[in-house]
Amino acid sequence: MRVQVKLFATLQKYAPEPEASVFPLEMPDGSTIADVMRTLGIPAGEVKIAYVNGRARAFVYRLKDGNELGIFPPIGGG
Fold first, then answer.
1. 77/13 Cα distance (integer angstroms)
2. Were both Cys, which of 2, 22, 31, 53 would link to 35 (CB 3.0–4.6 Å)?
3. pTM (2 decimals)?
C-alpha cells in the first residue's frame, strides 16, 4: 500500500530525501503508524502526535492505501 507522509518541524530530518517533508511511502498492507516510524528510523520519543486524514490516531492505528499521515514532534514555546 502507498501512504502520503508529512513530517513536521524537527522530524523532517528523517525524510528519505533531504528537504522532502512530504513524500509517498510504500508499506506492507496492515502497517501501523508505529511501523512507518520504524521504517523511517524515527524514535517514538521524538513523536508527540500523529494524524491520519486529519484525525489524531494512536501509533497502533492500521493504515490503509491512500491515507495521509502527518507526524508531529513535541513543540515547545515560551
1. 21
2. 31
3. 0.93
